[in-house]
Design goal:
Largest sheet: 7 strands, parallel
Strand order of the largest sheet: 3-2-1-4-5-6-7
CATH superfamily of the largest domain: Glycogen Phosphorylase B
Helix content: 40-55%
Number of helices: 13
CATH architecture of the largest domain: 3-Layer(aba) Sandwich
Oligomer: single chain
Structural class: alpha/beta
Shape: globular
Number of domains: 2
CATH topology of the largest domain: Rossmann fold
Number of strands: 13
Order of helices and strands: EHEHEHEHEHEHEEHEHEHEHEEHHH
């Protein structure tokens, strides 16, 4: 990579945990190269602020929440961020997630930030296909997001996507001009995930890891678990994650309380120890309706776990069907249950597919290899 003079770089996202988990290696790499990195998040705590500082970044409070439909507060937030940009006078801004991409890119253009990058880690809620395809709310949100993207994305000097399905949909279905787009398949998994970890088979444990959203396929996972539990009493099912009240697709606290009463499924809740969670799993299941390039599957593969996931954008790119796990149709608890039955009948395949997954992760998803690609995409 050619040498680049020190730059002032703004990262505009949403939560501090997301910045640390997904942007941490990038922040460290950029600051190591001598660049100044300003990380905007709206929910800093003393702990997360200190973590960003340890990575070399400067934590700053973002005025933008994830979703805000109040035009007055949105205007006030926009004016605050515009003032912050003028004060910093950055050379580059990287905006990620829907609201930061739309507002951050627009305000950076107005503020005269020379290089503006929009990262679409997935097309998101509005673009996700669901069983209730004619839901008026979803149709309206999709119309609004497409309209805003059509206006905003041309203001970006570069657009980063995580899978080619998203690129093809924006280009062929919505006729966006995406000549300045690059696709980076994956974010990068830290080195401590690459361990010689053998999947436990006694008992066989199927684990869902992710936010408890209908769009993540939690409903299908629970139904599949109930089907299998009726046939096999010695199989374990775990759900690891928490609700996301801001997301329209989130389960409610009441729903979780009701589901937790079911004997066949153990609800773990949120955990920071994702490595132990995966190590205690035989197979990781993510029946999502759409993703960018799911980090949890990359992490599970790095730890040598077979995968059950859906044949949808973002998920289908992570594994090779029947070699590292199975791709199933979306919305199908029956298809998930069939894959679970296969692994129960042939437990040796859990080990074999997990080993194949680990080899693929080592070749494609290691942070050591991925981070330089992200740095190059940001600075080139």
């Amino acid at each position: 990579m050619k040498s680049v003079p020190p730059q002032k770089i703004v990262l505009l996202g949403t939560t501090a945990n997301a910045a640390i988990h997904f942007r941490g290696p990038l922040i460290r790499a950029l600051t190591t190269l001598g660049h100044s990195v300003y990380v905007f998040c709206y929910d800093y705590t003393p702990t997360t602020r200190a973590t960003i500082e340890q990575l070399g970044g400067t934590p700053l409070n973002s005025p933008f929440k994830r979703i805000d439909f109040n035009p007055l507060t949105t205007l006030i937030s926009a004016l605050k961020f515009y003032t912050q940009l003028q004060s910093i006078s950055p050379d580059i801004i990287l905006s990620y997630f829907v609201t930061p991409v739309i507002l951050g890119t627009l305000l950076a253009k107005i503020a005269g930030v020379p290089y503006r990058i929009a990262l679409l880690e997935g097309l998101g809620y509005a673009f996700t296909h669901r069983p209730d395809k004619k839901n008026i709310k979803n149709i309206f949100l999709k119309f609004m997001q497409v309209t805003l993207y059509r206006f905003i994305l041309p203001l970006a000097n570069r657009i980063i996507l995580l899978n080619n399905d998203d690129l093809n949909e924006l280009k062929n279905k919505y006729h966006f001009n995406l000549a300045k787009t690059i696709v980076l398949e994956g974010i990068g998994v830290p080195a401590n995930f690459f361990q010689n970890s053998v999947a436990p088979l006694d008992p066989i444990t199927f684990t869902f890891i992710g936010r408890l959203l209908y769009d993540k396929g939690i409903r299908e996972f629970i139904t599949a678990a109930q089907l299998i539990s009726a046939e096999n009493k010695g199989i374990c099912f775990k759900v690891v994650g928490d609700i996301d009240p801001i997301n329209p697709s989130s389960l409610s606290t009441r729903s979780i309380a009701e589901l937790s009463l079911r004997d066949s499924i153990e609800f773990i809740g949120y955990t920071k120890d994702i490595i132990s969670t995966i190590k205690n799993s035989s197979v990781v299941v993510l029946p999502s309706y759409r993703e960018g390039f799911p980090r949890v599957l990359q992490e599970a593969m790095a730890l040598g776990r077979a995968i059950i996931t859906t044949d949808v954008p973002g998920c289908r790119q992570t594994i090779l069907h029947t070699k590292e796990g199975f791709l199933v149709p979306p919305f199908s608890a029956i298809a998930i249950a069939d894959c679970m039955r296969f692994f129960i009948r042939y437990p040796e395949k859990i080990i074999e597919m997990g080993e194949n997954a680990a080899l693929t992760a080592q070749k494609k998803y290691h942070e050591y290899d991925m981070t330089p690609k992200w740095v190059q995409a940001l600075l080139k």
